[in-house]
Design a protein that fits this description.
about 240 residues
C-alpha cells in the first residue's frame, strides 16, 4: 500500500503541531505525526538569541548615526548576521536528519504528517536575506547547498498551508507563552508579517500539490473543522481516502 507524506506548513503559531497530531488521531494511526525535533535549539538559547539580535538590528536600522554610533551599529549588524545564518544552518541540518528518518518510515509503508518541512527553510532564509540578517554571500551558499542536498530526497505528496492573519498569530503567541517568542507579538514587530508576505507566493510556486486552509475560517480543533481539512486532502491527493476510513 502506498505511503503518503503530508507536510503541514505555516507561520509561527499557525497551528501546525495541532493539525499534525489531529490527523494522526483521526486516521487511527494510519498516519503518524512527526514533530520537529529541534529542542536543543531552544535549550541552548539559539532561538532567543536570534530573535534578540534581529530585533535589535531592526530597531536601529532607520536611526541617524553620528560618528560615535558607527561602531555600535556595525556590531549590532554583525550579531544579527551571525545569528541569522547560525539559526538557519542549525534548523536546516536538523530537518535534514529528520528527513532521513521520514524516508525510512515511508519506505516501510508508513504515512506521515510532518510539522513543517525542510522546504519551508527557503522562506525563512529569504526573509533573513531580505532584511539583512543573512549576507548575500551566505544566502547564495545556502541556496547552492539546498539544491545539492535535496536532489534525491522524497517530496511531500501534499503541503497543507495554514494561512493566518498576523494579529491572530500574535494572539496565539501570547496565549501559549513561549518566552523566546514574546518579542514577536509586540505591536511594532513586523517579523511575522514579513514571513506572511513570503508564504503565499512560495506555496503557489513550490511545484508541489498544496491545500490552503484559512485558520480563521476553519477551526480544525473541532470535529467539523477537521473534517473540512480531510475533505480537502482526499480531494487533492488520489488514493488518500483509505487513510480516514
Amino acid at each position: 500500500m502506498k505511503s503518503y507524506l503530508f507536510s503541514i506548513a505555516g507561520n509561527i503559531a499557525a497551528g501546525k503541531s495541532t493539525l499534525t497530531k489531529a490527523l494522526e488521531s483521526r486516521s487511527n494511526g494510519k498516519i503518524v505525526s512527526f514533530l520537529e525535533r529541534v529542542d536543543y535549539v531552544k535549550e541552548n538559547g539559539y532561538l532567543q538569541k536570534y530573535y534578540e539580535a534581529v530585533t535589535a538590528y531592526d530597531r536601529i536600522k532607520g536611526l541617524k548615526l553620528d560618528g560615535k554610533g558607527r561602531d555600535d551599529f556595525l556590531e549590532v549588524k554583525r550579531e544579527a548576521e551571525y545569528w541569522g545564518y547560525k539559526i538557519q544552518e542549525t534548523y536546516f541540518l536538523s530537518r535534514l536528519l529528520d528527513l532521513g528518518v521520514l524516508t525510512e518510515l515511508l519506505r516501510e509503508g508508513q504515512s506521515v504528517a510532518q510539522d513543517r518541512s525542510i522546504y519551508e527553510d527557503q522562506i525563512f532564509t529569504k526573509n533573513s536575506n531580505n532584511y539583512e540578517y543573512i549576507t548575500d554571500a551566505d544566502y547564495r551558499k545556502y541556496l547552492d547547498l539546498f539544491d545539492l542536498v535535496m536532489k534525491d530526497k522524497p517530496k511531500p505528496d501534499l503541503i497543507i498551508y495554514l494561512e493566518s492573519d498576523v494579529e491572530a498569530l500574535k494572539e496565539r503567541i501570547i496565549g501559549r507563552s513561549r518566552g523566546e517568542e514574546v518579542e514577536l507579538a509586540s505591536p511594532d514587530n513586523h517579523y511575522l508579517a514579513n514571513l506572511n508576505n513570503l508564504y503565499r507566493p512560495w506555496i503557489m510556486k513550490c511545484g508541489l500539490p498544496y491545500l490552503v486552509i484559512d485558520t480563521e475560517a476553519i477551526d480544525f480543533r473541532t470535529e467539523a473543522g477537521l473534517e473540512k481539512v480531510i475533505e480537502g486532502i482526499v480531494h487533492t491527493v488520489p488514493g488518500a481516502e483509505h487513510l480516514f476510513e
